[in-house]
Design goal:
With about 475 residues, the chain is mainly α. It has 22 helices and two strands. The protein has helices spanning about 1-10, 15-20, 20-25, 30, 55-65, 70-75, 75-80, 80-95, 105-125, 130-160, 185-205, 210-230, 230-250, 255-285, 290-305, 320-330, 345-365, 365-370, 380-385, 400-425, 430-445, 455-470, and strands at about 40-45, 50-55. The longest helix has 29 residues, at about 130-160. It starts with a helix and ends in a 9-residue tail after the last helix.
C-alpha cells in the first residue's frame, strides 16, 4: 500500500503535492457537484421539504466552514469588491424573507444554503493561488465529465435488464430505453451538469486548439447528453453552441467555417449515435415489446413536442385480424408488454406550463406579494394554499425565474438579473466561452427550479467570475 501511495505521489504535479487543504478541496468541486442526489442521508419529509443531505451539499458546507477564519481575516479586502456586495444583498434578501415566509422551515433551509454558497464564493474569490489552479480545475472538470458520460452510456446498457439503482423516471419501461441520470435526481439535472464541459470543449474546437482526446471527450459528453432525452438540456446546448459559433466568428474569422462545421458535425453525429444506442438496447431489452424503430420514432416525437411523427411500419389490421391478434396475445401471457409511452409525453409539458401559470397567478395576487414574495422556498406551500390546484406543498415551480418571483418578489428577480448582468459584464473579454455557458444555464432554468440539485450552476458561475476578475484579462488561462 505504501509503495502504491509513493507511486501515485510521484506522478502528481509538484504544486498539487504542496497545495494547501483548501486548494485541494476547491479542486474537488468539479467532482462533488455530480453527486447531487445519490447517495443521500435522509431525515424524512416535513413542511414541503425533503430533509436530505447529499455529497454536493456536504461538500459546499465543508468548503465554507474550513475557511471561515481566513474569510474573517480578509473581510476588509473582500468587502471592497462590488461583486461581494451584490451577492451579499441577494443572499441577505433571502435571509430577510424568513420573516414573512409562509413556510419558515423551508425558508431557513433555502436561505441557509444560499449563505453557504456565499461563503464558498468568498473562499474561491480570495484564494491567493487561484491563477495556478485554473489548468488543474479544467482537467478535473473534463475528466470527471468523461467518466460520468461513460457511466450514463453504461446505464442504458444495464437498464435493458435491470432497474436497481435507476431513478423512477429513468427506467426502460417508460420509453423502452433508459434515460440515464448518473448520481443526479433526474436526467435533466444530469444533462445540466454536462453543459459547461461541453461548451468548454466546443470552444477549444472552434479555436482549433482541441486535441484528439478533447474531440473524443466532446463526442462522449454529447452522446450522454442525448441519452438523457432531456429537452431542456438538449435545447440549451444546441442554442448555446450556435451562439458560441457566432461569438467566435466575431472574434476571429480564421478557419471559422471549417471549425464551425466540425463542431456542428460532432454535435449531430453524437446525437445520432445516441439515438442508435437507445434503439439497439430497446431491441435487446427482453422486458419490453418495443424494437429499434419504435425507439427512434419515440425519440423524434418527444424531442419535437409531437410535431414530427414517423410512419408506423405495422400495416393496418382488419377487425378480424385485430381480434385474432388479441386472442393470440391472451394465450401468450409471457410475452413482454409495450413500453408505457409511445412518443411525445404531453403531460410533462402540460405540468410544467400549468405550474408556471399557477406560480404567475400567485405572484401577482396582491401588490405586497408581487413586491416581496411569499418567502424563500415558500412557492410550493403558497401555490397549494392559494390556488388549491396542486396535490400538495411538495410541488415545485419548474421555472427558476418564476420560482424566484413567487418567493422573493420582483425585488428578488431584479437582484438575480443584476447578478447575471454583472457576470456577463465581468466575463466580456472571454464572452465566446463564458456567455454561451451562462446562456445554457439560463435556458435550462426555464425547465427546472431548485437549489440543492443544481449547485453546479452556482459553482461554475463563482469560478468564472472569480477567475476572470482575479486574473489579468490578457493572460491566456485556457490551456
Amino acid at each position: 500500500m505504501m509503495q502504491l501511495i509513493t507511486n501515485v505521489r510521484q506522478h502528481l504535479p509538484s504544486w498539487l503535492i504542496k497545495a494547501s487543504f483548501t486548494e485541494k478541496l476547491v479542486l474537488l468541486a468539479p467532482v462533488a457537484v455530480w453527486f447531487s442526489y445519490f447517495p443521500t442521508i435522509s431525515f424524512g419529509r416535513q413542511s414541503g421539504t425533503n430533509l436530505e443531505l447529499s455529497i454536493a451539499v456536504i461538500y459546499a458546507v465543508i468548503l465554507a466552514l474550513v475557511e471561515l477564519p481566513q474569510i474573517w481575516s480578509r473581510r476588509h479586502l473582500l468587502w471592497r469588491q462590488k461583486a461581494v456586495w451584490l451577492l451579499a444583498v441577494f443572499v441577505g434578501w433571502n435571509l430577510l424573507s424568513v420573516i414573512w415566509s409562509v413556510n419558515p422551515l423551508r425558508s431557513i433551509l433555502v436561505s441557509g444554503l444560499w449563505s453557504v454558497l456565499f461563503l464558498d464564493f468568498l473562499v474561491i474569490y480570495s484564494l491567493p493561488s487561484l491563477k495556478k489552479m485554473i489548468s488543474p480545475l479544467m482537467r478535473v472538470t473534463i475528466t470527471t465529465a468523461v467518466v460520468m458520460s461513460l457511466l450514463a452510456i453504461i446505464q442504458v446498457v444495464y437498464g435493458a435488464w435491470f432497474d436497481w439503482g435507476l431513478c423512477g423516471g429513468c427506467v426502460a419501461r417508460g420509453f423502452g430505453f433508459v434515460r440515464p441520470s448518473g448520481f443526479a435526481i433526474e436526467p435533466q439535472f444530469f444533462g445540466s451538469l454536462l453543459i459547461a464541459p461541453i461548451l468548454f470543449l466546443s470552444y477549444r474546437l472552434l479555436q482549433n486548439k482541441a486535441t484528439k482526446y478533447d474531440v473524443a471527450s466532446l463526442c462522449l459528453m454529447l452522446m450522454a447528453l442525448y441519452l438523457t432525452l432531456s429537452r431542456g438540456a438538449l435545447y440549451a446546448v444546441v442554442v448555446a453552441v450556435l451562439v458560441q459559433v457566432v461569438l467566435v466568428y466575431w472574434r476571429t474569422s480564421a478557419n471559422w467555417l471549417r471549425s464551425s462545421a466540425v463542431v456542428i458535425a460532432v454535435l449531430v453525429g453524437s446525437f445520432a449515435f445516441g439515438m442508435i444506442w437507445h434503439g439497439v438496447f430497446t431491441q435487446l431489452n427482453p422486458r419490453v415489446a418495443d424494437g429499434f424503430y419504435q425507439s427512434i420514432t419515440k425519440s423524434i416525437s418527444h424531442l419535437s413536442l409531437g410535431k414530427i411523427n414517423l410512419p408506423n411500419p405495422t400495416p393496418q389490421q382488419s377487425p378480424q385480424e385485430s381480434n385474432s391478434a388479441t386472442s393470440s396475445q391472451e394465450v401468450t401471457p409471457d410475452s413482454p408488454p409495450k413500453a408505457v409511452f409511445d412518443g411525445y409525453v404531453a403531460k410533462s409539458t402540460e405540468e410544467r406550463t400549468g405550474m408556471s401559470q399557477l406560480a404567475l397567478e400567485v405572484w401577482i395576487k396582491s401588490p405586497t406579494q408581487f413586491l416581496f414574495g411569499v418567502g424563500a422556498g415558500g412557492a410550493g406551500r403558497a401555490i397549494f394554499q392559494q390556488s388549491g390546484k396542486t396535490s400538495g406543498e411538495f410541488e415545485i415551480v419548474q421555472n427558476e425565474f418564476l420560482s424566484i418571483g413567487v418567493e422573493l418578489g420582483i425585488v428578488g428577480v431584479v437582484l438575480l438579473l443584476a447578478l447575471l448582468l454583472a457576470l456577463c459584464r465581468k466575463t466580456y473579454a472571454k464572452k465566446a466561452l463564458a456567455w454561451p455557458i451562462i446562456l445554457g444555464f439560463v435556458l435550462q432554468w426555464m425547465f427546472f427550479s431548485g437549489l440543492p440539485n443544481a449547485l453546479h450552476i452556482y459553482f461554475v458561475a463563482m469560478l468564472m467570475f472569480a477567475i476572470i476578475d482575479r486574473v489579468d484579462e490578457k493572460a491566456e488561462y485556457i490551456s
